[in-house]
Amino acid sequence: MGNKNSRSKHERSLIKNIQEFNQIESDQERHEKFLEYYFSTSTDSIDRFHVFHFLRQYIFQSNFSSPVEENLIRGGYKVLDVGCGPGTWLLDLSSKYESSYFFGVDSELMFPQEIKPNNVEFFKADLSAGLSFGDNEFDFTHIELMRLIYTSDKWDFILSELIRVTKPGGYIEVAGRRNENVERAPILRKLMDTINESGLKRNIDINLIYSLESKFELHPNIGNVHRIEKKIIVGLNSDKIGLVSRELTLAFLKSEPLLIKFLSEELGVSEEEYKKLIEKDLVEEFEQVYSESIYVRIWAQKQLT
Question: In this protein, which residues make up the domain named Methyltransferase (predicted)?
Fold first, then answer.
């Protein structure tokens, strides 16, 4: 009975969202509505976040690249994850480093609110308004997958906030995916370009990952900036991890009616044509043509004063 009620509630919410989308006239509002889906709190979306976390962990063979593991093991280390989503990254770390403390912040209530480890705390807050924590409070500050959320000028403020709440000697790490100079087959490239164009219309820097190092270096109390990239093949000749990434991409593109409606209209095709494009043409392209994804981590140490 509970599942039926939950499903009915989701369906009513979905119908309401589609009705609202149909009434939107301005491009700005349409792209804001699309963004609501992009960071959806639906069960399917949260499941994808969980799988995506373990995908990235496998690609890098670690949950982070900053040299902080010894301190985490020693205990008493305070870690902040900004834009934590459902909290998968923090929950994974908290089980491995039980003597350290983990804090997550997100503007949506995707994270566990009742059942969670004793060394984890979550807070609902909007990063663009500033972090409510004091100066020099955390040993390690982390942010990931926020490329399509904030405008370029906001990222200057966000980095300053991450640096502000990090202790001298602590580390700040930013992770994401490369958008430029990535080899993609034609259908996949067209779809990704359409999503990126929705960001450009909102003054989003879709190539943010390229400018982050220079943004870090503008801060006088930041030491050497480090960068690591990992590439996986998601098209022809992909291995098992590439197949997982491929399935995540397909699930993202075909799972929600609101996204289907948005992308089909942006591409100038009917929803039925869009579904065929994803479920048949894109699947065949993945099997026959090379495509890749490139994941990036950038980290730096806040200098001792």
Answer: 79-170
Whole domain around residue 131: which residue ranges? 38-302
- Residue 155 clears pLDDT 50, i.e. is over it: yes
CB 41 within 8 A of CB 108: yes
Helices 186-200 and 257-267 meet at what angle, rounded to 10? 100
pLDDT at 261: 86
The enclosing H or E element of 3 equals helix 2-23
Q: According to the model, what pLDDT value does residue 8 have?
A: 46
CA angle 200, 206, 210 (to 5 degrees): 145
First to last CA, the chain: 60
Specify the residue for token string 């955390």. Answer: 138
Bridge partner residues of 78 (DSSP): 101
Looking at the DSSP bridge assignments, the partners of residue 222 are 302
pLDDT band for 2, please (50, 70, 90 cuts): very low
How many C-beta atoms surround the C-beta of residue 304 within 10 A?
10
For residues 100 and 119, what is the distance between their CA atoms, to the nearest angstrom? 7
Residue 46, domain CATH: 3.40.50.150
**Does a structural domain hold residue 273?**
yes
Task: Give the pTM.
Answer: 0.82
Report residue 7 as tokens: 């499903």
Provide the domain count of the chain: 1
* Encoded amino acid at 245, one letter: S
**Residue 90 lies inside a defined structural domain of this protein:** yes
| Phi, psi for residue 133 in degrees, rounded to 5 | -80, 155
Write out the DSSP string of 27-72: HHHHHHHHHHHHT--SHHHHHHHHHHHHHHHHHHTSS--SS-HHHH
